[in-house]
Specification:
Helices cover 75% and strands 0% of the residues. The chain has 2 helices and no strands. The mean pLDDT is 82.
Length: 80
């Protein structure tokens, strides 16, 4: 698998988990304050924005890690 695809998959998973947790926390606080369980539209936009920011940062980080952790082709094998 190419490093970019692997990085994209890992970044997407991390961003999705964090965005879902953030929206769930916002909804929990909203329920605690108002007593009704209504999903306001701004919370969904905030979740999407959180996902985009975390995805961008994680993609850049994972791409860097995937590129630099690959074994070099000209490196001698490691014998223990």
């Amino acid at each position: 698998m190419t490093p970019n695809l692997k990085a994209c998959g890992q970044a997407m998973l991390t961003a999705m988990v964090n965005a879902i947790l953030a929206v769930a926390l916002m909804l929990l606080v909203e329920f605690a304050i108002s007593g009704t369980f209504v999903v306001p539209r701004p919370y969904l936009w905030a979740g999407l924005l959180i996902w985009a920011v975390i995805f961008a940062g994680q993609f850049w980080r994972q791409r860097y890690l995937c590129k630099h952790c690959l074994p070099r082709q000209d490196a001698p094998p490691i014998d223990h």
